[in-house]
Amino acid sequence: MSEPVVAIIVAAGLGTRFGGQTPKQFLRLTGRAVVTVAVEAMAAGGCTHVVVVINEKASEHWSDSGSPIPVFTTFGGSSRQESVRKGIEFVHDHPELRGARVVLIHDAVRPMVPAHVVHSVVKAVDEGAAAVAPYVPVTDTIRRVREDGHGSEVLDRSQLRSIQTPQGFPLDVIVRAHREMADRDVPFTDDVSCVEALGHEVVLVEGSRLAMKITEPTDLTVAKALWKVRRTIGHHSGRRVFRLGRR
Ligand SMILES: Nc1ccn([C@@H]2O[C@H](COP(=O)(O)OP(=O)(O)OP(=O)(O)O)[C@@H](O)[C@H]2O)c(=O)n1
Ligand SMILES: C[C@](O)(CO)[C@H](O)COP(=O)(O)O
């Protein structure tokens, strides 16, 4: 039997920026929950198993029925970093998962990531990378506000990238990185940064605008609209739609 490729989907957030009673990852994206669509995206990209990290307080919203690959569930923590750590420890301790060759960490709230992006991340880890993240170019002009509160300065956006998930790692590397950063109490907003702090290089692969993060209510409206046309993206004759799919 070949080694598992495990995706850890973090879904333990409470969605304070989104608001509402039900955490955003359990809202519907045309018929199915956002997190369920994220599970399907991991399967479509070549993952063999998924661990969904949920919040104990919101567990009544979660159901894994109908998944194309085996799904395990564990409880998360009070920050994304802590939830990732708990997911990684679950994989590390699980007899069926601990032989994983590649581990991906994915936000439940990026449900529409295309299979080719997931596949590129898995491939880059398979080929020896210690930390892999998909990116899209920054298209807004970006300014940094000065710390003293007086004014701001423009940054050179040609050197900036917007980082997405899934991010990929060999299991031993991501376990070591998260344990060490938790011991040192160093916070990170993503997982490649955590591994980079151990001295590893971060490899970037091309991501997709479809892997947008649902953070605020408007994002879900946009996601629903994109979901309806996603099959045409990349095959459509219209240039705008084509570009959206590729970048
Ligand atoms: N304690 C947490 C916090 C976040 N997440 C997950 O990390 C991903 C990205 O987080 P974010 O978009 O910030 O979600 P929330 O924390 O739910 O949102 P907010 O910051 O607005 O409260 C989401 O899939 C979220 O469920 C998690 O598993 N555990
Ligand atoms: C991991 C991430 O999605 C990469 O862009 C992002 O850092 C998560 O940020 P959030 O504030 O926890 O949503």
Q: What is the distance, rounded to the nearest whole angstrom, between the alpha carbons of the first and last residues?
A: 35 Å
Bound molecules: cytidine-5'-triphosphate, ligand LQXTBERG
Please tally the β strands and state the result: 12
The CATH homologous superfamily: Spore Coat Polysaccharide Biosynthesis Protein SpsA, Chain A
Question: In terms of topology, how is this protein built?
Answer:
Blueprint (H helix, E strand, L loop, with lengths): L4 E7 L16 E2 L2 E2 H11 L4 E6 L16 E5 L4 H14 L8 E6 L7 H12 L5 E6 L5 E3 L6 E3 L6 E3 L3 E3 L1 H14 L6 H6 L6 E4 L10 H13 L9 H8 L1
Parallel strand pairs: 1-4, 1-6, 4-5, 7-12
Antiparallel strand pairs: 2-3, 6-11, 7-10, 8-9
Helix pairs in contact: 2-4
The site of cytidine-5'-triphosphate (CTP) has 22 residues, from strand 1 and helix 2.
Descriptive notes:
Keywords: Isoprene biosynthesis, Nucleotidyltransferase, Transferase. Pathway: Isoprenoid biosynthesis; isopentenyl diphosphate biosynthesis via DXP pathway; isopentenyl diphosphate from 1-deoxy-D-xylulose 5-phosphate: step 2/6. The model is unreliable at 234-247 (pLDDT under 50). The chain is globular, with a radius of gyration of 18 Å. Strand 8 (143-145) and strand 9 form a beta hairpin. It is built from seven helices and twelve strands. The protein has one domain: Alpha-Beta Complex (Spore Coat Polysaccharide Biosynthesis Protein SpsA, Chain A). A five-stranded mixed beta sheet has the order 5-4-1-6-11, with helices on both faces. The protein has a three-stranded mixed beta sheet with strand order 10-7-12. The longest helix has 14 residues, at 80-93. Helix 2 (80-93) packs across helix 4. The two termini are 35 Å apart. 32% of the residues lie in helices and 20% in strands. It is an alpha/beta fold and 247 residues long. It binds cytidine-5'-triphosphate and the ligand C[C@](O)(CO)[C@H](O)COP(=O)(O)O. The site of the ligand C[C@](O)(CO)[C@H](O)COP(=O)(O)O has 8 residues, from loops.
